[in-house]
Amino acid sequence: MRTTIGYTVESIGYVVGAQGFVSFASQTLFGTEWGWMHKVVDLPSTAYLGIVVVGLALIVGGVKTRKAPERQEVA
Known about the structure:
The chain crosses the membrane at residues 12-30, 45-63. Helix content is 71%, strand content 0%.
């Protein structure tokens, strides 16, 4: 169960981090709205960097909660 939760949290982190990065880059560099994050929340471009940090924290948390594979004994 722990392995599944770690992978799930990590996967959510990738999506959230990518959407935060895309939203930040599109507002800062092009002045437009890309991705779906702007449809959920209306934030200034610097706040999207916080979303990227949240995504990275979820990725790190997911990796740390993965269960290490069992070591097999050689007969």
